[in-house]
Amino acid sequence: xxxxxxxxxxxxxxxxxxxxxxxxxxxxxxxxxxxxxxxxxxxxxxxxxxxxxxxxxxxxxxxxxxxxxxxxxxxxxxxxxxxxxxxxxxxxxxxxxxxxxxxxxxxxxxxxxxxxxxxxxxxxxxxxxxxxxxxxxxxxxxxxxxxxxxxxxxxxxxxxxxxxxxxxxxxxxxxxxxxxxxxxxxxxxxxxxxxxxxxxxxxxxxxxxxxxxxxxxxxxxxxxxxxxxxxxxxxxxxxxxxxxxxxxxxxxxxxxxxxxxxxxxxxxxxxxxxxxxxxxxxxxxxxxxxxxxxxxxxxxxxxxx
Length: 305
Fold this sequence. Notes:
The protein has 13 helices and no strands. By secondary structure, it is an all-alpha fold. Helix 4 (about 85-120) crosses helix 7 and helix 4 (about 85-120) runs parallel beside helix 13 (about 270-300). The protein is flat, with a radius of gyration of 24 Å. The N and C termini lie close together (about 10 Å).
């Protein structure tokens, strides 16, 4: 296990390096610059700002300087939020997104796994059809539509919940629900197909033939094996959701990392774009390693190479 983890850590470093390199050069291929939109600035002032942030140097020199700083954990200065480093922005905004994303993932697992299992056991019945319709709806409907519907019904019509900010526990209900709908629906469908496959295996028929009750055979054999594809899906999903859905955060005016990322793109805040992209890539790589380790803990028969 230790040898495998070391190997994956080395691969993770290479992956993050590749993501940083690709993002850097693609970002700089876009015409314009971070100070072009500020019409009040004179050409001399723009040139001074470019010199201050090192944007006047050749691209290769900018890349070398950025990578040296990155190796030291320095993500640079934001060119739009003057006086703030990217490290400070990520450190202050990520906990907000993590709270919302963590709650959404918890709800998605608690809803999706039972629904998928019930649909598999009730295959072909009305219950199965209802769950399939629900999961298909949750996957097909875009998150901004879900946000709009929730705001219209729960806020505009009923006046039950606030529509922006995170000042109380009520503010979390709609964003978390909007974030949890898609993953819970996807997990339900994934769990259903996986559980159907497991229930048809020989060892399940053998367990029932030995006299094990349906409840024991489900929890001891079926669920443990059927949940493996869900664990695979949770790795990248956790990294994406915890970092925050860009659309959901923007609609509900949530001061999280997702809204910062959207603002950095529209404002061409190059260091912030780089920093949030690298942070997300690192988080996804870490989650994938943890998923592989969880695989081994759930099913010791899996051989990690």
